[in-house]
Amino acid sequence: MSKVYNVFLFFLFANLVVSQNTTYVHSHNDYSQAVPFWNAFSAGANSIEVDVFLKNNTLYATHSKADIIEGRTIENLYLEPLQKVVSLKLGDNQNIQLLIDVKSEAYKTLDKIIEILKKYPDLIKNNKIGFIISGNRPKPDDYKNYPEYITFDYQSLDPISDEAWEKVALISLDFAQFSSWNGKGRLIKEEKEKIIAVIKTAHSYKKPFRFSNKMLFRFWGTPDSKTAWKCFVDLGVDFICTDHPFACINYVKSLPQRVYTNQVFSEVYTPSFQYDQKSKPVKNVILLIGDGNGLTQLSSATLANKGSLTITQLKSIGFIKTQSADDFTTDSAAAGTALATGQKTYNRAIGVDTYGNPLINITEIAQKNHFKTGIITTDDVTGATPAAFYAHQKDRGEEYKIAQDLLKSNLNLFIGGGKNQFKDFGNFEILDSPKMISESKSNKIGFFMSDKAVLGVLEGRANLLAEVTANSLIYFKAKEQPFFLMVEGAQIDSYGHMNKVSGIVSEGIDFDKAVTEAIKFADANEGTLVIITADHETSGFSIPQGDLKKHQIEGGFTTQDHTGTLVPIFAYGPHSDEFAGVYENNEVFHKILSILKLSK
């Protein structure tokens, strides 16, 4: 094999050495696409298939003689476009293998292919373009008789001579020989084991002058669905055959961001249920809000956390509707205001009604009734959700005014990020560590998790949310007065907007650690009601696949924004059963006041 072709192999397959699970996309029957070649090329396909049939000395792009359409030849559909790619330097250093599936007699057709390719020296000398003959091919012993730029698709697992292996670019087999799977559900165990053995055998073949660490392999006739694509990626198939190159390539390329193997775990606490659902007086309320934490987000955290969370131990469960006063899909400001004030308002509003008038919120009502109050968030303390519990501004973007509202508020405690937004801290004593929170005797304290944005769990925040929650509960208990505390796990939403599964799962599990501290406190302190909900769902999150043993989640997304779906609400402690059912988000406020026997 010549040095020129060795160089081609190096550039075309060098990336395959990096990972045995590197997968490329093969545009199957590409000539039948609405726009042949360009559709697959622009999608980023590395392998493109064209069927050819030799008739009257013309090489048509067609499946059979009967399907010939005049003018549709391998030249004008593939070789001329490839020439444009080379001459105009299109693509981002994209390696292309043109798999030519011969449907007419092998030897005469291949002679014609070579004759035509000689007209395109820029292509046959290009180290990023390869030509692979499939379908009707010469006998393996004859492979050596063809030019260096011609290689073959070997469609068997039977051994051949080393000389023949030199000319083999990949092994292809009919999927139907090994499985009848249609791409829905999962491969049955026996068929999966058979396919794994086939791939292993194909990858085991050695050949001279190769630069990948395995023989390259594909199936043809495969099911063409997301489930199937993921299966073939996991099995180590090198080229996935598809009739949907754009969708398949986008799916495969996005897998590293959408598949997360969890390594952050929440130790599940089993509640005592001693006071749960009892009709006893409530003194303390802990409201935990998972921003963007819809049912699927909760499911992903649960399944990645060995199948269980503290929150999933609870018995009082309902769903709330999240629509704002002016939109089907709420933002955090309107949703936070509905939870904090009992009144729906327009998106972006912080503690004001639809006319911009201030609404009294639950912390202000509690303070008038001799409750201590506080807010905790992994967002900036001026973020929309925490702000709804102390501020009154017509727009969530008024961060300076919101910060001033915080300093003027009667809150006893605030914790979050965004220290750089404050020039002074009013009457609040700013503490330097979570431990100082529980030890403080001051009536008004604050703790900043960061000067600017708070880090995510995977960025180094560790267990800070649970730690500050636990210390804050000690702080409030020492005051020997009833209290209301809002705790927000804000970054489930942030990672939802980024469509980043690792963040959604890790932040959801981290949020459960704060839930655990609240439930433990409720068990140890009679009269404590814990409520856990979300302000809205973010990203239209779905979890089509995963692996419980590996703590692995594959996520999918319909948007990078919020959605209008219902979100779950859990409660624990006295009167927790009153939060069951399906209702509007602003009803949470009224239920809390009713249970506390407080009025506006």
Automatic annotation (TrEMBL):
Q: Which family does it belong to?
A: Belongs to the alkaline phosphatase family.
Which Pfam families does the record cross-reference, listed alphabetically? Alk_phosphatase, GDPD_2
Q: SMART domains of this UniProt entry?
A: alkPPc
Q: Which Gene3D superfamilies match?
A: Alkaline Phosphatase, subunit A, Phosphatidylinositol (PI) phosphodiesterase
The residue ranges crossing the membrane are none
- Name of protein: Alkaline phosphatase
Name the keywords, alphabetized.
Answer: Phosphoprotein, Signal
Superkingdom field: Bacteria
Q: Matching CDD domains, A to Z? A: ALP, PI-PLCc_GDPD_SF_unchar3
Annotated signal sequence is 1-19
